[in-house]
Amino acid sequence: HAKVGYRETICFYDAEIGAAVRKRRQLAEALRYALEHDELEVHYQVQMSLAAGEIHGYEALLRWTHPQFGPIPPSDFIPLAEENGLISSLGAWVLRRACMDAAEWESGYRVAVNVSAVQFMDSNLPRLVHEVLVETGLAPHRLELELTETALVKDKSRSLHVMRQIKALGVAMALDDFGSGYSSLETLRTFPFDKIKLDKAFVDGIQEDRQSMAIVRAVLALGKSLEIPVLAEGIETGDQMSILRAEGCDEGQGYLLGRPMPIGDLARHGRSTRADALQDGEKPGDAV
Ligand code: C2E
Ligand code: MG
Ligand code: MG
Ligand code: MG
Prior knowledge:
Blueprint: H1 6-36, E1 40-49, E2 55-66, E3 70-72, H2 74-83, H3 87-104, E4 110-114, H4 117-122, H5 125-136, E5 143-147, H6 150-153, H7 156-168, E6 172-178, H8 184-190, E7 195-198, H9 200-205, H10 210-226, E8 230-232, H11 238-246, E9 251-252, E10 261-262, H12 266-277
Parallel strand pairs: 2-4, 4-5, 5-6, 6-7, 7-8, 8-9
Antiparallel strand pairs: 1-2, 1-9, 1-10, 2-3
Helix pairs in contact: 3-5, 5-7
């Protein structure tokens, strides 16, 4: 095989890293441009009660389609925005958009907005939330913020302070991706969450392995004793849905119940979802 000297190896990696850095910088520039030129969009994914099949609300999920690169997943551009400080304006934009949209829904459904760890700690989030609620006229109880544990671990007393201020506005707080990260029990003991979102990984494993099933049961029991409703994320099959329902899981979200979709498609989806729920003898609720 070809003999590659030490120097050449270094040069090779340098070039590669250089290209990756340039690509990231280019992407960051493009994201800033997208934010300023309205190239971002918010899609909505339904959250339902599993027992009654009623719609409770929608999670707002950010979508970015780059003119050349095509759709870029949030898992790529959110960390980028966190690194270069763009996350605060990005987060403010999503919050405003989602509250404006939800304020138009006659049904009174709730909207859940993701808040990044950096945004939670850096910006004056309680003030922003208050301003946006006043601006859009959305009733505070119709807004929920989703937060992962990463957001809370760095500075607990400050996190607790921020969280209490937000809750004092009447806005609910959900613990996102529960079970996937840090010391979850300590988080639940310390922070006054209104909902636990059980990470998709456990729902995926519910039929495959005893461990996942055992953990799902334990989390549901924990939710019951703490009197915090549990929402299962990433439900994709009818079997997963029936198991979770039988185990007494309060709410669910996932492709089976509805994909994230543009605001314009929500009304139609609301009607078909209600039609599905009617099999169980439900009374129809209001469409979006
Ligand atoms: P998340 O908050 O846990 O959102 C759930 C993710 O799971 C979404 O991915 C959703 O599209 C996806 N999902 C829902 N149901 C299913 C299912 O049945 N199967 C599968 N395979 N996936 C499902 P998405 O939209 O790509 O977002 C990924 C993550 O990016 C989110 O995870 C959240 O952490 C972050 N994110 C998205 N939008 C925002 C935002 O506006 N602000 C912030 N800070 N983060 C956001
Ligand atoms: Mg979320
Ligand atoms: Mg999640
Ligand atoms: Mg997630």
